[in-house]
Specification:
Radius of gyration: 21 Å
Number of strands: 0
Shape: globular
Structural class: mainly alpha
Number of domains: 1
Helix content: over 70%
């Protein structure tokens, strides 16, 4: 299949998957906000943020690793792709269990000392089910992306999206905040089961057999070179983002402000879903092209992806900017107050879209340690420092402004690092 056809087909299927996943999340959050009201939705948003943070840490960047190396070796070395798949499956299951256990253990401390809301401890414990299955889901979606099995991802996205709206909405109606988290956990389990079925089928079709025994000994270099630095980057970035959010809820009326911020952030995520879809497809194709050794073709794919993602991000911002106030009001009449906050996050999504497109080059070159020190550390440090000072005076708008500043800084560092790597590779090719 031609490269253009692969990109179009992959983007189309992935668009369906992400549309149902992100769309169902938005719809479910609107329903939850109307049931729990502003204060309750703010609490749910902070608990969900905590769960997503711990789940991301528990994944140990395994989904990211699986996507890169399965895409790179599925055609040239299926046996190695199988070893990588087996290794990633084992590590994801182990880390999911560890993460869920730790969350249950520290839930009282997190709720009391960090969130200033001891009554949320039980909610965090209920959410450990969501954490466990989400961590495994991270590996499964990464592996399916590496196989370019976007049709399977689309089918799984449709099914899990429908389940998400039903389970989370019914949970909120039945049991308030705790019921919402039960529904969230049920949806994560269903999604994990669906992904498992399609991953087994796609692996068999492409002639890749997951190998578990001895996979760590043979592929440990991937862990040290790629998964470990990617995980450390996540271990630094995700808690820093969570910490910035926690500054907001610790303020007077902080959970009400968090509700406004979360509603606006849901719209930002909606803007980012198409750039994320294109980036996911481009990432798999770019790594597959890298294995073929055609440098000019590889560079052309990269440049095209950057341009397309910028244009799509800009278009999404303009559309949501026009209809943003009306969408906010779907959460409830009080949420229209977050319109200015929304615009700050929408502008940030332009810089964020460009950054994720540029990061493809860094990732495909496996320069993860370098990117951690030159991008993650300064960007997230700025976010926390700026949020600490701004939320005290400006509440949710201050947190949004801090996020905007961090995305601008992050884009500057992405441009610097990619330019450096691009020039280095150009000199290497010229010398051959």
């Amino acid at each position: 299949m031609r490269l253009r056809d692969r990109l179009i087909k992959g983007t189309g299927f992935n668009l369906i998957a992400v549309a149902f996943n992100q769309g169902s999340t938005l719809i479910a959050n609107i329903i939850v906000a109307r049931i729990l009201m502003k204060q309750g939705f703010g609490e749910y948003a902070m608990v969900q943020s905590t769960l997503l943070t711990v789940a991301a840490l528990s994944q140990l960047a395994i989904g990211y690793t699986a996507a890169k190396y399965i895409a790179e070796y599925r055609s040239s070395d299926p046996a190695r792709a199988g070893r990588i798949m087996g290794l990633c499956a084992l590590v994801s299951a182990l880390m999911a269990g560890v993460g869920a256990f730790l969350l249950i253990t520290i839930a009282p401390w997190l709720a009391g000392a960090m969130l200033k809301a001891p009554h949320l401890a039980f909610a965090l414990m209920i959410g450990s089910g969501f954490l466990f299955f989400s961590a495994i889901n991270g590996y499964q979606t990464g592996a399916l992306s590496g196989l370019e099995a976007y049709g399977s991802l689309a089918k799984a996205g449709v099914a899990s999206g429908i389940v998400a709206v039903a389970a989370i909405s019914l949970g909120a109606w039945w049991g308030g905040l705790n019921g919402t988290l039960v529904g969230l956990s049920i949806n994560a389990f269903v999604r994990c089961a669906i992904h498992n079925r399609w991953l087994r089928l796609e692996s068999r079709v492409q002639g890749i057999t997951p190998q578990y025994r001895g996979s760590l000994d043979q592929e440990k270099a991937i862990i040290y070179k790629f998964a470990l630095p990617a995980a450390i980057a996540g271990y630094y970035s995700m808690p820093m983002i969570w910490l910035a959010n926690s500054f907001l809820v610790r303020q007077p009326s902080g959970y009400g402000e968090m509700a406004l911020y979360s509603a606006a952030n849901n719209i930002r995520i909606l803007v980012m879903f198409l750039p994320s879809v294109m980036n996911s497809v481009g990432l798999s194709v770019l790594n597959n092209e890298k294995a073929k050794g055609d440098v000019s073709h590889y560079n052309r794919v990269f440049r095209s992806n950057v341009l397309y993602i910028f244009l799509v991000s800009l278009g999404g911002v303009l559309v949501m900017g026009v209809f943003g106030r009306q969408i906010l009001q779907l959460f409830g009449k009080d949420f229209a107050a977050g319109h200015f906050l929304l615009w700050l996050l929408l502008v940030a999504s332009i810089f964020e879209g460009l950054s994720i497109a540029l990061y493809q080059y860094v990732q495909s070159q496996a320069k993860i340690w370098l990117s951690f020190f030159t991008i993650n550390v300064p960007r997230e440090t700025f976010l926390v420092v700026a949020a600490y000072y701004l939320v005290q005076s400006y509440g949710g708008a201050g947190l949004a402004a801090a996020y905007l500043g961090s995305t601008i800084l992050g884009l500057a560092f992405h441009l610097f690092l990619v330019a450096m790597l691009y020039e280095k590779n150009r000199k290497v090719v010229a010398a051959l």
